[in-house]
Amino acid sequence: MGExxxxxxxxAQACGTRAIVNNFSAQPELVEDGWLTSGQPMYDAAxxxxxxxxxxxxxxxxxxxxxxxxxxxxxxAREHALNYDADLxxxxxxxxxxxxxxxxxxxxxxxxxxxxxxxxxxxxNPNTNPLLTIYIPAYKRPDELRVLLDSIASQMDERVExxxxxxxPAGSALEPTQQAFSAGSARVxxxxxxxxVGGDVNLLRAYRAGSAPWVWMIGDDDALLPGAVDAVxxxxxxxxxxxxxLLTEFAPRNAAGATGSLxxxxxxxxxxxxxxxxxxxxxxxxSETDFVKGFDHSESMYGHSWALTGIDRVRVLEQPCFIVGxxxxxxxxxxxxxxxxxxxxxxxxxxxxxxxxxxxxYEWNYVSAANRAKVDAP
Length: 378
Fold this sequence. Notes:
nine-stranded mixed sheet; 39% helix; alpha/beta; two-stranded parallel sheet; 15 strands
């Protein structure tokens, strides 16, 4: 009911009719004797705005409660609507905000025309019905992205869709995407953000982008091993877990092939839960992700991992599936946080999974395993 500036809600209440609205934006202020539904906040990067998708079960509960009240009218709702002073809202809130827009535009440089050229969006085979979404958050690494896309393209079929979400306003990921997927039966979608929304938001967006029931987010500097997509699709088809953790050729194999909760898997390999914060190491059932929890922890850099803390059924795939890029991960973390801060954040995440942190929780990660393999190579 956000349309019409909220006026339809006030009009209904002025007639004594209770309103059912989403608990988001200004709507709670406009409803007195009614119902507030819960929902999932989502980010529309094209409009640079948040919106909320109401929860169906919450709507049903509100409708059932409304039905139980019969055709009664609410004097409280009517009084609230009649006393609502739109002129006061305009003078107190809207006039000052509108007056500030020119300064905000000059300061933040975030207001720009919506792109209408072909470089902002490109798609292929839009009418497929995929089982797996491969989501690639890209940012100014076209050469590494080419390697990744080439490793994916030969493994694609109609069971898979690929979404390249380009955070570079210049669109540096478009040409590699078009070159890698110029033909084939898989669905492909390239989208360019108007502005850099930031890695944390772009990662969380993976859990809502696309149409497939499973999501595999892949870093743009990683690459897939041959047979990886088939191995993942076979594991998905078994339909007995909600999260797959993938390994590289150099990762420890203490938990390879294990199935259970993450705390149970951590007994086999205490470092794997933190190592698996690497986005490429996870394939998840979309319906089991908790976007709200992820968003609440997005400032930690690990919102995408917090969104998985409610998943109980996990399998560590036996077959190694990817090659990890080793050039950027450490620099990204070091640029944002001190080591002590990272350890605190990792400790909080482990507790969110129901795992007690220990020194063994941080013995290895995918990058360190790859770097050690380079050193040990003859």
